[in-house]
Amino acid sequence: MGSLIEIKDNPAQEGFLWTRVDELVNWGRKNSLWPMPLGLSCCGIELMAMIGPKFDLARFGAEAARFSPRQADLMVVAGTLTWKMAEACRTIYDQMPDPKWVIAMGVCSSSGGMYDSYSVVQGVDSILPVDVYVPGCPPRPDAVIDAILKLQKKIERERPVELLLQGANTDEGIGTRRFDRAPNRGVPTTRSHEFLPPGQVSDR
Amino acid sequence: MSAQTTSTKVFEYNPTALQGDDPLHGELMELNMGPQHPATHGVLRIKVVLDGETMKEIEPVVGYLHRGKEKTCESLGWRKFFPHTDRLDYVQPLMNNCAYAIALEKLGGVPVPERGQIIRVMLMEMSRIAAHLIYLGTTAIDLGAVTMFFFTFKERETIYTFLDAYTGHRMNNTYVRIGGVYADVNEDVGREIEKWCEHFLGAVDEYEKMLTGNRIWYDRNHNIGIVNKELALAWSLTGPNLRGSGFEWDLRKQQPYSSYERFNFEIPVGTTGDCYDRYLVRVEEMRQSTRIIQQAVKLLRDTRGGEFLADDRRYVLPPKGKVHTSMEELIHQFKIVTDMALPKGEAYGAVESSKGELGFYVVSDGTSHPLRCHIRAPGLMNVQAIPVVMRDRLFSDTVSIIGSLDFVMGEVDR
Amino acid sequence: MTSTQERVQAALDGLQASISSARDGMPTITVPADKVHEAVQRLKERAGFETNTLVTAVDHYPAEPRYELCWQFLSVSHNDRVRLHARIGGDQPTVASIIDLFPGAAYSERECFDMFGVVFTGHTGLKRLLMPEEYDHFPLRKDFPHHGIEPDRLYREWDRKRRERPSNTAFRQEEGAH
User: Fold this and answer.
1) Which of A63, B395, C6, C54 is the most buried (most CB within 10 A)?
2) A-side interface with B, Cβ within 8 Å?
3) Which residues of chain B from 385 to 404 reach within 8 Å of chain C, CB to CB?
4) Which residue has the higher pLDDT, C162 or B152?
5) Do residue A40 and residue B154 have CB atoms under 8 angstroms apart?
């Protein structure tokens, strides 16, 4: 009884009952992650291999790959994101209902990868909040399964009841990096900078 | 069909012009099959104007995976571009590498030793089988035959295991160099590949048992997406799209490269050029590729101990052991890594990939930075043919046709 | 001269074409820019080249004329290939489109326009292929930097409009916090 009164006054203080509810909710969420494979390029093939028979993703409850974002809760950005595709990617992320998580699979979505060119987003975290980054080009399906297990551990640490009591609104996306951080910054490696007008550096 | 062959009407995408006063047909609906879609085989966007279920106007929009590869080649240099070629048509791991190497070898005048050529043939044919397995698995799952996806990916995993054992990585191997391949093939791997080839021929029979006589598969693919020879040649289609129409054109036979003239294999062709014929062509190509691999493994046994990398000081790195001990090799390595230049001129090297003619048009001005490297991607021509083949068909045929024209957005967009 | 070169020479008689052999052995023809369509028509009708393999351009930046356009054709009946070059330059580089002869060149020409800014007259539907349609620059020109010029500009504009749009869930705030 005492713990219930405590929660009403100060929702941030955990009571025994609410941690149990938290655990239950987190257990349900982490064992039934429904991935939405945003298979953009080569990593998409390894993603398909992960859902395939050898590296069976169904063991972790994540077999129901839903291509509609409205029915999924885990977005796996597998492949290179270009600025032309970025609008669609952000729209898809916005269409996913809460709770949602993002795995940036492969180096292209984590940081732009080997493409430091005029059309590639240097890391999908320029436009979305990312939970787990998986390096590799492409990462082995084992690595992505490891990422999903790490994500499950991360979900265990969440506090859904507290968020509910606080009335948190995650419309804007929390983000691990600020969007204003300038993307596509790098060292020029081409001689085309020789042809630029004097005073203009090759990258904005 | 002949009216469609040379008509340029497909580029006038004007949906309002089609509205009529026919009470039976009513309003046209514009539908977007967006860049994110399970059945578009990558990030392809198709804008469709529908009259009921019939497609009146189709416009594919590409470029959602444009990574600036041709510009990257000009920045990086010839040798450092090899990993980028891998990611072009990412379902056939080593075919793109070989095509690029062949173009560069033509430009530089580098002959590839016999064993290097045979290893390349073996790797290219394994890539072709892998690509056709993806075609089969994904097209079948798009049409509802979900089991095929698991069956074909199981075989793909075995191919990946071989490539992992041989090259060190499952896909995007970057194993080919100017003048040959990076390292020699292990005898054990060869023996396992031979055993697998026997098993794989049985697996292909299993796939045929599941699909070829299947009433649903036949109904969804027969008389759909017909591409005859004139249409294919007018629209620059090559590969199974051209061979499905009954015309036997395969670069491996017509303009042999990399010692393909030593191998015995046949070129399957279709009859009518519909999706079903292209499916049969690809399944038979898998069998012929298995045959080539078996011959290649035997030849590798015969050429044991042969050179797999050309001995050309201008383009081929010296063995690493010598680099650490001998001054001359150190300078030689330094020069190649920093300042490798191909002679001034242009060359075009093409291979018969699983989608068609994959070619690299390379232009050099004699300096260490390339002047131009253009990638002739067969997928781009296949995407171009989508409106031609899909017009006035039902919307559900979209999936069959896209799967059957078979393209990979990595090479379409580059 | 090989038989291919002889056949091509005979077909292009009178068009100021110069034929040579490139490093890969392919006969390479150079024609003036205004004779391109005529040359391609003759190659198709008289020399038997049924299909077009590629259409692309090379930017020789400081040199004028700046762009060297390249067409390549394949003859399946004679089993050979030929390459055609033409140099064009100026602020608005234009050349005739060949899609009335080879419809398969459509996307390649669009890509040339997208990457270099070369306008193909007679190509209905000449718009960008690989870059977004509102993009301002031509990436494969030599004076365009490798990292691009403000590559995220279009996305930022779209994102600003997205943030300013009233949210679908705005009604939640009206009812008061949970």
Assistant:
1) C54
2) 38-42, 44-46, 48-49, 52-54, 67, 79-80, 82, 84-85, 88-89, 92, 114-115, 117-120, 137-138, 140, 189-192
3) 388
4) B152
5) no
CB neighbourhood size of B150 (10 A)? 15
Q: Which domains does chain A have, with CATH numbers?
A: 34-195 (3.40.50.12280)
pLDDT beyond 70 at B10: no
Q: Give the C-alpha separation, B112 to B115, whole Å.
A: 8
Quick check: helix, strand or coil at residue B180? strand
Query: Comparing C-alpha atoms, which of B296, B343, B335, B290 is closest to residue B316?
Result: B335
- CB distance A12 to A24 below 8 Å: no
**Amino acid sitting at position A21:** V
ipTM value: 0.90
Record: contact C147-A90, CB cut-off 8 A: no
Checking if the pLDDT of B131 tops 80, the result is yes
Q: Is C128 near chain A, with CB under 8 Å?
A: no
Task: Kindly give the pairing relationship between strand C80-88 and strand C67-75.
Answer: antiparallel
- Answer whether A38 sits within 8 Å of B36, measured CB to CB: yes
Note whether B65 contacts A79, CB cutoff 8 Å. Answer: yes
| pLDDT value at residue B7 | 45
Q: Indicate the domain borders of chain C.
A: 3-167
Confidence of residue C170 (pLDDT cuts 50, 70, 90): low
CA distance A161 to chain C (A): 12
Write down all domains in chain B, each with its CATH number in brackets. 2-61 (no CATH), 69-413 (1.10.645.10)
Do the chains contact at C99 and B249, CB–CB below 8 Å?
no
Query: Touching B: which chains, 3+ CB pairs < 8 A?
Result: A, C
pLDDT in tens, A181-198: 333 433 333 444 444 555
Rounded distance between C-alpha atoms, residue A128 and residue A102, angstroms = 8
Residue A75 has pLDDT above 90, yes or no: yes
Could you tell me the two tokens for A102?
A: 């993002």
Whether residue B381 is predicted with pLDDT greater than 70 in this model: the reply is: yes
